[in-house]
What we know:
Elements: E1 8-12, H1 18-27, E2 33-37, H2 49-65, E3 70-73, H3 76-89, E4 95-96, H4 102-108, E5 113-118, H5 120-123, H6 126-135, E6 140-145, H7 149-154, H8 161-176, E7 181-184, H9 193-199, E8 205-207, H10 210-223, E9 234-238, H11 242-252, E10 259-261
Helix pairs in contact: 1-10, 2-3
Amino acid sequence: MTERAAPVGVFDSGVGGLSVLREIRQRLPHEPLLYLADSAHVPYGEKTPEFIRERCRVITAFLLAQGAKALVLACNTATAAGIAELRELYPALPIIGMEPAVKPAARATRSGVVGVLATTGTLRSAKFAALLDRFASDVRVITQPCPGLVERIEAGALDDAATRELLAGWVGPLLAEGCDTLILGCTHYPFIKPLLSQMVPPDVQLIDTGAAVARRLEALLDSRELLASGEARVRFFCSGDPRRMETVLPILWGEKSPVEFFAG
């Protein structure tokens, strides 16, 4: 396998990173892709930074063993906890992470009030605090942790009564405070954009960063002459029950695919 034809490795605590994988596939249709859902340990948002860093090391080693030429941490919590260490361990490897879209949200808001829906792990991270200091000094940012939402999305429950009830309890207070821009600070959350759009006024913007990550990946691969040009394939791995992931893939990815078990 030539280096150009090598795959890009993408991972998340579960299936949420498929929202990022979808953006990558749309922008880079010729890139072979590996996607690993660490579903045995989902969600990362309630885990310690030390635990998440250890998972990042194990998963990265596996994806590199599969021939990955680049790595995408399709998880805000994993990025906050582990990307700095991975870049130290693999200085020659192109590594791209996620971060909540504080900068574009601060630019987009008209009311000066921005809401953030995210996991507890993302909201309490130093990386998120630094983003606020750097880009949101002139706006009011209201954060809202969303415990239980990742699990609903993992189950493919994107529009049922329980998911609606959870979202209403979080979004209602943000709107009451004048938020006109909502940051989707977890890669799982773009899957409930249609539901969120029904619950907020039409002038409230919903912002995530999947497309920006795909653009960044394209630029990085291009700069290193690593863009692929052949036929692309996607392989899926899961540390939990592969059959469960196979059940939700048609809902979240849009097509059926076999899922291989990852025992790491």
